Amino acid sequence: DALECLSYLASVMRDLGKYDESETMHRHAFAVRDKVLGGDHPDTLTSANNLAVVLQYQGNYDESETVNRRALEGRERILGAGHLDTLRSVSHLAIVLWRQGKYSVSEAMNRRALEDREKVLGSEHPATLSSLNNLGVVLQSQGKYGESEMIQRRVLQGREKLLGPDHPETLTSLNNLAV
């Protein structure tokens, strides 16, 4: 449908760094879906999630947190706590909270995302490794260097095995460990 195409284009614009254009498109898709489908429709919640992500990229963390929480609460209610889309919202909210310096809340959200992704996807899935990486970064931000290092080593090993030693995500893990 047209809104799905608009959402896809908005995500492409975000990936190209054209955040203002992406935000405008995501806001439109979200508003129309909210009006036509209702606030709890999975497509509306996806639009909310997508808008929250671009707001985070723009550094608009307060609004991103608000929209993220709406998406997460709706997804928990409609899809369930263990659904992959719900876990994606948990992870996105954890990143926004970290960016705001709300480290203890971010840590709890990251631990939740990690635990549930391990159950649903397994410990070596890229999304699980991403949650593990995010947890390591938050722990480092709190000065919990020992635990952060152990986690970052696990992420590095997992990404080397899954993606190879020269993949950008593997190199990011190596950098995170060095810091």
TrEMBL record:
Instruction: Keywords in alphabetical order, please.
Output: Cytoplasm, Repeat, TPR repeat
GO BP term, pick one: microtubule-based movement
Tell me the GO molecular function terms: kinesin binding
Which organism does this sequence originate in?
Tuber aestivum (summer truffle)
Give the subcellular location: Cytoplasm
Protein's name according to its UniProt entry: Kinesin light chain
GO cellular component terms attached to this protein's record: cytoplasm; kinesin complex
Supply the InterPro entries for this chain. Answer: Kinesin_light (IPR002151), TPR-like_helical_dom_sf (IPR011990)
Q: What Gene3D superfamilies does the database record attribute to this sequence?
A: Tetratricopeptide repeat domain (1.25.40.10)
